[in-house]
Every structure is written in C-alpha cells, then in structure tokens.
C-alpha cells in the first residue's frame, strides 16, 4: 500500500487550528502495569526516545510527546514530525550513514513496513497493552514486527441545511439514487490513497458497475479526501463521500452545518502501524513508548484532537462513534498494494480525470 | 534589431599578446554565462531528455516511454486541452490588459493609482488562492454570484459555472493579465508623443493614432507578454488541479502528476514533456520572424516628450473597464478570502458572531512552520530575483547586440525553462542535484536554483524588451569617445533601463514568492515556503487557516511592493533628458 503521503498525514491530524479548546490534560491517576514499571525503570537510564512520525499532525503529535513525558517523569520524547515520506527518507538516510537516531517509526504508508521488515530493520516486540485495544487494531504483524497505533476512518457526511436526516443516504449504495445527481462530492484516488482504498473496496463489494453508476450522478471530483468537506461547508455540494472523520469532526466543532453518516455497509478504515527500529539507541524507552501508544492515555490525548480512539474504554472524539460499535471494512495490505494503482486507471477511464 | 555595435575587426594581424589584450570582456562573460546556464538549465533538462529514452532501472535505450506517453487518447486529449487553454487564457489576458496599460500609460484617465494597485493585487494573489476565491463566487450551487442571480431572477440554472473550460480560462487570465500589462505599459512609457503628434498633424484622431501608431509600436511587448502568458498557462499546476479536475478537464500538468504517482514513471513523464519544448522553439522562432521585419525603436538619444492623451468624456468608460477588471480579478476573490480568514466557519457567511482572530493568532504564534516559511520565502525570492535579473540582463544584452557567436543559443536557454512545467523542472533538478555528491535536497540552494531557472524567462523577456528599446547609437557614441564595452553598459545602457530592471526584479520576486509547482517537490522540512504551506493547509480542508495564510502572504508582498514602488517612484518623478 503505497499511499497517503503528505495528504495522509494532514488527514491524519487534521487538527490544525484547533485552538483554545485544548488545555493541559489533567494528570491521570492511571496505575502503571508491572510490565510498564519494569520498562520505565530500564528506560530511565536511557532518558529519552526519538519518534519519527508521519501519522499525526503538529498538535496531536506534540500533545502525545508531552503526555509521554508527563506520565513517565524523567523521560523525554523527541517528536520528529513530518510527512510519512519524509520520515521514511530521513530514516533511510540515517541507515545509509550508519547512524542510529530513530527509536520509533510511524508512517501512514504500510508499504514502508513491508520493506523494513524484509530488510530486517525492525525490532520484534509485541506491546502487552495491544491486547486491550479494539478488535480491529489488536492484531498487529503476525511476526510482531509492528503494531497498529493509528486509524483513519472514511465515511459519508451531509450538509444539514441542504439535506434532512431522514433523506440522507444510509449506505454507499444509496449514493447511486438519481436524486443525488449533482449533489455528491468525492476525492480522487490519484491524489488520495484513502480514496483509492475506498474505490477498491466498492469494486470488491459491488463490482466496477458501482463506480459507473456513481458517475451517472456526476459527483464533483476533488483531490484529497478532505476536499468534499470544504465543498459541503460552503454548500456547493450536499453529500461528501469517503471523507475523513477527523477533518469532518473538526469542521463540525467549528460550527459548520455538517453531519457524519456511518454507512450501514461499512466504514472504510485505514490502519497505520508503528514499529521499533532494530538498532534503536533507546530500546527500553522505545518499548515503553509502544506500550504507551497502545494504551489508553494515548487514545485520550489524540481523541481530544478528533483522531480515533483505539481503546474500548476511551470514548471516541466528540461527535464520533466507538470503533467497536461500527462495521469497519478494509482491504488486506496485499490487496491494497496491488489494487490501488490499478484502481487509479479504472477510475480515470470511468470519470475522465 | 539587425545591425548592432561594431565588433572592432582589426585590419592587420596582431601579436598574440596584443590579441589577448584585445579580447573583449564580453567573451569571458559569455563563457561564465554559458557555464551558469549549463548548470541551471541545460544539465537538468539534458537529464530529462536522456531519461525519456531510458528503461527504468537498467537505463537501456528504449522508445517505449514515448509509446506509453502517447499511447492513450486521454493523454493526447490533455495535450490538446493545454494548448487550447493557453490560447484562451492568453487571448483573454490581452483583451483585459492592453487597454488598461494604454489608459494608465498614455491617457489622463482618473484613478490610475487604484488601477496600478489592482493590477499588482491580481498579480500578487497566488493563482490557487484566486481559484479558491472564484469557486466561492461562481460555484454552480453555492457561489455568491449564482445565489444572487437566483434570488434576483428566480431562475434555477446558474449564471456562471467556474467548473468549465471557459471558467478555467477566465480564472487563469484574471491572474495572468498583469504580465501583459506590465510588459505593455513599460513599453508604452517609452514611446514619445512625437510620433503621435506626427499622426495628429496629418489629421488622425486619438483612436486612429492609438490603433495605428501607438499600439503597433509596442507590438513586441504585446507579443512577448502573450507568449509568456501562454507558456505560463500550459505550465500551471495549481489552478487546473483545483478547477480543472472537478470540471473533468485533464491538462498536461495534471497528466504529468499522474506519471509521478507510485510507481514513479519519470521516464514517461520526460517523454510526455517533450512536445512542450517543441512548442517553445516554435513560439520563439515565430516571434523572431514577426519582429525581425520591422524596427521598433522608440527610445532614441534625442529627448522625446510624453504627454497624456486627453480622453474627454471617454475618461469614465475607460476607467470603468479598468475598475471592472480590478473588481473581478482582485476585489471579489479577495473579499471572499478575507471573510474566510476572519471566520470561525466560513460556511456561516458574514455575521458578527462568526468573526475571529483565531486563524491568524494560530499561524503567528502557535504554528511551528508559518513564521519560518515566511522568512524562507522572502530570502529565497529576493536571492532568486537578483540572480535572475543579473543573468537575464547580461544574456539579453549579448544576444541583442550579437557580441559573440552563438549568443542566440544563450537566449534560447534562458527562455526554455518557461515551458517546462514546474513539476518536471523540479524532477529534473532533483535528478541532477539532489543525490550525492552534491546532495542538495532539502537545502535552500536547490530551491533558489530552481526559482532562478524557472523565472529566468520572465527576467529575460523583460530585459530583452528593455534593451530593444535602447538604440545602439547611444552606446556607439560612448564607444567612439573611447569607453570600453563594460563601461558603456554600466554608464549608458543600465541607467536607461533601470526602471525596467526594477520592474523585472519585482516580477521575479513576486512569482517566486507564490511559486508552488516546482517548490512543492523540492522543499525539505526546514525550507518550506509560504506557497507550499498554503497548499499543504488547503489539503487539510482547513479553509479559514488557508485564507489567513494567504492574507499574511498578501500583506507581506504588498509591503515589499510598496517599498519597491517608492524606490522606483523617485525615478518616476525625474524627467528623462
């Protein structure tokens, strides 16, 4: 799955500009597990952990780093945030120069992990906290080389001034109803990896005919998966298709008249892994960070900035639904890697751009 | 300009030492310029040309890339769309710009400074921001213009639809016409009233004189500006991506983007970019053929006088035209963007409880890259503008005066980058200089180099037009009096064209500051520019912050332009004798 480059990153965070809403998080009297305590003691000697991340945007990224330091006094998380491609490039440069700087690597591009795993550059570690994650995130790499720590959700939304709740589409197939002609907006698989995944899933579920029928409704095609949110805010289009939940929730929090629809035939999920690098200079701090990223505190921090909770006990972001309660659909890594590039050509033949 | 300064051919054979002494500094400069152009233009482009015949991975010779690049109707269609779009945008730009340039330069039309400001505003407004503004204005469902139309007429069909070929061409023209305006205005500024007087004495009225005398005299500037707009349009990425994709119009640049998708097909993209180079060659040859037949000297050594033409009752209709262009290109999109930049949610429209300073406050005080990107933009753009103007002036002078053999080749190299879309140029630079031994990726150097190369044509066209207007007789006078070539240029030519050069510098500065398509592929984490940041923010669907960043960009650029105008303005006041 070579997808979601800088766009994915921005979708991921989408919390730019969420401002005063976010204060300091009250220190949570969360007990450390014995395993965590043990790692913490070992990690104290290392003092810090360096995290190359392309998953979260600035504010949630930094909030996570800060929360890590607050939970484990004496440890400092260096958050090196960028797009996933740049993070990967930086890591490759480190490796070429034979310097070990990075402990934790987070990318929205699962292709990176396939490569790193094949080259033997990842450290085997299964975070114990992963067992308490929601079903869809719990199962990491079968060889325990990486673990899902981030979820992008792609669903539908509508402008409440243009469409009533009763009228709004309920499933992906409802979009084919001719009454939505000239009302729909969607991104483009050539610009957004998530749209490629969505289109691939539609093809798997309903055949290529689905896209051909959708074309009859003349959807407005943008670039990123977030474009339709902008169009709905302005009232140019009534229905947004395959829009990221984080961006939409942020938009709603700012007073735009939007509402999310969790399609009955499945919400598209794009899980993204995090891994420890084999020659991590701070291996214990890295393991502790993995426990942190799979534990509840991390989910609490990122949900305040509209990212999805990965823990059943942490409520979803304001306006969202718990992942365990909704039907999630996603292709396997192999299907995505092969299917998305093909999908772009199919898309262009059908939609003309 | 067919004949030019004498080359000083010696009648008798000289000793080698004497020969060396007699080598014109121009020859040495030619060598230096050739080296610089080699690095900036020829090598990255050569790399592209070579890779268009290479098999990916192995590097073996192949024609497959061309087969792939032209093997689909959709790809050819995109090429056709680009050409049509270039023609339409250039045509509309001429219609918008030439009357304005004439009115500001040569008439007593009121409100010239307002016109000047709107022209600059249109030029400063990055095309992708303008495109977003126009989507809000002319979107078929929610656009303000269409809402007003429905309210006023009760009709359902929209009045205007920005998502169409004509919408796309108009939006591009509304942001490109300043190029023609500036070219034509500076040329008109040099035309003395004597020639118009001659026509008047012979019985021609104002309109006849304007159409038969004044405008034909600035034909090289009109043609040059039109070509630049045409080439800029076919190389534009942002606006076609924002408007063209929803309108289902695929153009060369959006098609090239597709070849850069994973797996990246640089070789196919290179092959696909080749016709653009051919188009430039054809354009430049055509320009030469058209201009070589006639002389366009308007600035001679004899002091001319410039008086504004009296428009009488026509003052207001002419002003009305300028004002309309200003309203459509600047005022309306700007108002929509400013509204958004101060809005909590721009979908909520104009209301007091929707007002906030949060977007600006966020960018200025809490965004990790915003301030850095502003500094980067100012520094990169000013270095690039200075380098481009100096290079272009030297090349244009050598080419215009034919000081050395193959001077035309330098001119071609200086002009060629314009047709290389920013995306392709960025990849050329990337391929040539990003990796070791130079390893320039992520540095300021690679961005500045790309900006210089990319905007050299603007500086070059500007310098060429300026030099064309200076008759060699003035230089010849200095040289007869014993002055060397360099001294002549420094003391005679440069002062005569100083104002044009300052205009050229501002042009390059502004287009560099808003440059997106090449920068987006070359910036590293520390070298982010404002335009790229705006593009990134726009991808995040955070329109209020995008607009605020656009607002910051506009304020900063306007301040700098204001300073520049003040400096140029002093010159303005002086009478040239």
From TrEMBL, chain A:
Pfam families (alphabetical): SBP_bac_6 (PF13343)
Protein name: Iron(III) transport system substrate-binding protein
Keywords: Signal
PANTHER family registered for this protein in UniProt: ABC TRANSPORTER SUBSTRATE-BINDING PROTEIN, THIAMINE-BINDING PERIPLASMIC PROTEIN-RELATED
Source domain of life: Bacteria
Species name: Stella humosa
InterPro entries for the chain: Ferric-bd, TAT_signal
TrEMBL record, chain B:
Entry-linked PROSITE patterns: ABC_TM1
UniProt keyword Methyltransferase, yes or no: no
GO BP, sorted A to Z: transmembrane transport
Membrane topology listed for this record: Multi-pass membrane protein
ABC transmembrane type-1 domain span: 79-287, 374-564
Transmembrane segments: 27-46, 83-102, 114-139, 159-184, 221-249, 269-291, 316-342, 374-398, 410-433, 439-461, 501-525, 545-568
Keyword tags: Cell inner membrane, Cell membrane, Membrane, Transmembrane, Transmembrane helix, Transport
A Pfam family recorded for this sequence: BPD_transp_1
Main location as per UniProt: membrane
Family affiliation: Belongs to the binding-protein-dependent transport system permease family.
Name this polypeptide is given: Iron(III) transport system permease protein
């Amino acid at each position: 799955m070579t997808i979601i480059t800088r766009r994915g990153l921005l979708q991921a965070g989408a919390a730019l500009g969420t401002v005063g809403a976010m204060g300091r998080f009250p220190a949570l009297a969360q007990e450390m597990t014995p395993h965590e305590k043990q790692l913490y003691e070992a990690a104290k000697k290392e003092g810090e952990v360096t995290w190359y991340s392309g998953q979260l945007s600035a504010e949630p990224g930094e909030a996570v780093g800060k929360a890590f330091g607050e939970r484990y006094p004496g440890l400092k998380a260096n958050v090196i945030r960028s797009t996933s491609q740049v993070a990967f490039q930086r890591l490759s440069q480190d490796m070429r120069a034979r310097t070990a700087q990075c402990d934790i690597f987070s990318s929205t591009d699962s292709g990176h992990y396939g490569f790193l795993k094949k080259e033997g550059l990842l450290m085997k570690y299964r975070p114990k906290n992963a067992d308490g994650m929601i079903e869809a995130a719990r199962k990491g790499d079968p060889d325990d080389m990486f673990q899902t720590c981030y979820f992008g959700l792609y669903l539908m939304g509508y402008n409440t001034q243009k469409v009533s709740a009763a009228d709004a589409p309920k499933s992906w197939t409802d979009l084919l109803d001719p009454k939505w002609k000239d009302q729909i907006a969607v991104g483009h698989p050539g610009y957004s990896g998530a749209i490629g995944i969505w289109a691939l899933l539609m093809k798997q579920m309903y055949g290529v005919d689905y896209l051909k029928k959708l074309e009859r409704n003349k959807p407005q095609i943008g670039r990123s998966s977030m474009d339709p949110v902008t169009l709905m805010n302005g009232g140019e289009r009534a229905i947004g298709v395959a829009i990221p939940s984080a961006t939409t929730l942020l938009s709603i929090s700012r007073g735009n008249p939007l509402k999310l629809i969790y399609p009955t035939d499945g919400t598209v999920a794009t899980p993204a892994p995090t891994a420890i690098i084999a020659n991590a200079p701070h291996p214990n701090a890295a393991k502790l960070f993995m426990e942190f990223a799979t534990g509840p505190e991390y989910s609490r921090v990122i949900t305040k900035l509209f990212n999805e909770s990965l823990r059943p006990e942490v409520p979803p972001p304001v306006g969202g639904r718990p992942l365990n309660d909704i039907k999630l659909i996603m292709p396997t890594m192999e299907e995505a890697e092969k299917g998305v590039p093909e999908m772009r050509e199919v898309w262009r033949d059908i939609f003309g751009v | 300009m067919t004949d030019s300064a004498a080359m000083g051919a010696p009648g008798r054979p000289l000793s080698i030492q004497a020969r060396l002494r007699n080598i014109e500094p121009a020859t040495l400069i030619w060598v230096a310029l050739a080296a610089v152009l080699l690095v900036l233009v020829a090598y990255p482009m050569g790399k592209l040309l070579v890779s268009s015949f290479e098999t990916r991975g192995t590097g073996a010779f192949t024609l497959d890339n061309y087969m792939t690049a032209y093997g689909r109707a959709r790809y050819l269609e995109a090429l056709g769309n680009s050409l049509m779009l270039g023609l339409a945008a250039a045509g509309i730009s001429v219609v918008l710009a030439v009357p304005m340039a004439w009115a500001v330069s040569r008439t007593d039309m009121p409100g010239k400074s307002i016109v000047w400001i709107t022209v600059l505003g249109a030029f400063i407004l990055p095309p992708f921001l303008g495109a977003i503004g126009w989507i809000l204005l002319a979107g078929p469902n929610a656009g303000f213009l269409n809402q007003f139309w429905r309210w006023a007429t009760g009709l359902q069909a929209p009045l205007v639809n920005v998502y169409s070929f004509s919408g796309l061409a108009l939006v591009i023209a509304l942001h490109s016409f300043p190029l023609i305006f500036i070219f034509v205005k500076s040329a008109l500024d040099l035309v003395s009233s004597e020639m118009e007087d001659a026509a008047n004495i012979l019985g021609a009225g104002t309109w006849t004189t304007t159409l038969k005398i004044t405008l034909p005299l600035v034909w090289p500037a009109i043609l040059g500006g039109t070509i630049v707009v045409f080439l800029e349009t076919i190389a534009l990425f942002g606006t076609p991506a924002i408007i063209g994709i929803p309108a289902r119009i695929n153009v060369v640049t959006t098609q090239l983007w597709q070849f850069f998708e994973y797996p990246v097909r640089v070789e196919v993209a290179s092959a696909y970019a080749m016709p653009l180079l051919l188009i430039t060659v054809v354009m430049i040859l055509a320009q030469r053929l058209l201009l070589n037949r006639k002389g366009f000297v308007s600035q001679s050594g004899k002091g001319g006088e410039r008086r504004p033409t009296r428009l009488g009752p026509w003052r207001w209709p002419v002003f009305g035209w300028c004002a309309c262009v200003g309203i459509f290109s600047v005022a309306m999109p700007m108002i929509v963007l400013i509204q958004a930049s101060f809005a909590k949610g721009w979908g909520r429209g104009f209301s007091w409880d929707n007002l906030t300073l949060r977007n600006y406050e966020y960018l200025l005080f809490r965004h990790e890259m915003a301030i850095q990107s502003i500094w980067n933009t100012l520094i990169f753009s000013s270095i690039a503008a200075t380098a481009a103007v100096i290079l272009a002036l030297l090349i244009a002078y050598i080419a215009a005066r034919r000081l050395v053999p193959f001077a035309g080749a330098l001119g071609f190299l200086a002009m060629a980058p314009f047709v290389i879309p920013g995306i392709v140029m960025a990849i050329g630079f990337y391929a040539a200089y990003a990796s070791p031994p130079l390893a320039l990726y992520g540095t300021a150097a690679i961005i500045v180099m790309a900006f210089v190369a990319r905007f050299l044509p603007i500086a070059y066209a500007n310098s060429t037009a300026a030099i064309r207007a200076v008759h060699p007789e003035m230089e010849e006078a200095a040289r007869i009096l014993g002055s060397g070539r360099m001294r002549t240029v420094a003391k005679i030519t440069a002062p005569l064209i100083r104002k044009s050069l300052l205009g050229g510098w501002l042009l390059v500065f502004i287009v560099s500051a808003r440059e997106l398509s090449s920068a987006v592929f070359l910036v590293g984490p520390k070298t982010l520019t404002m335009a790229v940041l705006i593009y990134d923010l726009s991808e995040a669907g955070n329109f209020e912050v995008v607009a605020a960043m656009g607002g910051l960009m506009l304020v900063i650029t306007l301040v700098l332009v204001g300073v520049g105008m003040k400096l140029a303005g002093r010159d303005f006041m002086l009478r040239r004798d």
